[in-house]
Amino acid sequence: MYCAKNTICCGFAWNFRVARCCGLDLLIRPLLACVYLISPRVISAVRQLSRSVSMFSYKISAEIKLRLLEERHAEQVFDLIVEDRERHPELDKNLSLDDVKKKIKRDLALFADNKGLNVGVWEQGILAGTVRYHEIDWSNKSTELGYSVGGAFEGRGLITKTCRVLIDYAFEGLGLNRIAISCAVENQKSRAVAERLGFTQEGILRQSEWLQDHFTDIAVYGLLASEWRAKNISSSSAFL
Fold first, then answer.
1. How far, in Å, CA of 199 to CA of 236, rounded?
2. Domain coordinates of the chain in residue numbers?
3. Most buried residue among 19, 31, 96, 158 by CB atoms closer than 10 A?
4. d(C-alpha 101, C-alpha 121), whole Å
5. What is the pLDDT of residues 219-236, one digit of tens each?
6. Domain 56-230 CATH class label
């Protein structure tokens, strides 16, 4: 019988036996019948989710690891933001730890819906930065890449290495066709990452964003799947 091999079904069956002793079997029996009917789909979904989550715990090297950001990481992310506020005027000076927790929850919801991804970059067990897909546009098979790194970790290639892994997964694993990067024109370090990765500057959005007390121009970069493959800088579908 299928249910005998199914831990979820077996769990419900055990609870049903307990309920019968307590006189609650008439209440649970209809629910149990529904679970038996949908259990193959439930198991399939759980297995797919398990595989997806395991993909986003990835070792780049002995020192550098990527992990899906979860609520338990909120304090570490907040500490990075506090350290970087002076260097990055685009960061909200009023951002609180609760705000960070809410943002991580939203990102996890996007991840669960297969619409986004936000990973932390750990070097020797310390959170050094984050890299993310902003919401994935499945209709047009595109997304935008965002990244940040703590000042103490700059110049080590952590973000470039992580972006290579996520770009490769976007093209080879998810089947996307285009990735964009947007950054302030004066943010030369972020622009250098995009250029090292082979992105093409596609234009400047003049006075596109309000940062603290002024409008700033935004440089827009793009990379196509065909360009990524042609340049032979793919990391061979690291997550697959």
1. 19
2. 2-50, 56-230
3. 158
4. 17
5. 999 999 999 999 865 444
6. alpha beta
